[in-house]
Amino acid sequence: MYLVCYDITSDRVRNKIVKTLEGYGRRVQYSVFECDLDEKRYKELYGKLLRIMQGVEAQNGNICFYYICKNCMGKKQIIGVPKKPEGWPDEEVIII
């Protein structure tokens, strides 16, 4: 699992980054995505984001990748209400 965080000042660049990340993970905060990737998908995502960031001046933003092992993901704690994945119904669903 990778936690991918970005801080980009350009709306155009930020929108491209968001669209790319939406294809690889789920948004958990405004500028944070959880991406469950194997090595091949990680390299693919990294390459796409690197190409988007080429030509962007350093002071205009950055993207950070944090690897989180499965053991550590099991220790994740949330205060408040976690964000539901897109497409999930607002009401509670019970499957029997």
Question: How would you sum up this structure, described in words?
Answer:
The protein contains 3 helices and 4 strands, in the order βαββαβα. By secondary structure, the chain is of the alpha+beta class. Strands 2-3-1-4 form a 4-stranded antiparallel β-sheet, covered by helices on one side. β2 and β3 form a beta hairpin. The model has no long low-confidence stretch (mean pLDDT 86).
Write the layout of secondary structure elements.
Elements lengths: L1 E7 L2 H12 L3 E4 L2 E4 L3 H15 L7 E7 L2 H4 L23
Helix pairs in contact: 1-2
The 3D shape can be described as globular
Binned strand content: 15-25%
**Number of DSSP E strands:** 4
- Report the average pLDDT across residues: 86
Q: What percent of residues adopt helix (DSSP H or I)?
A: 25-40%
Identify the strand order in the major beta sheet. 2-3-1-4
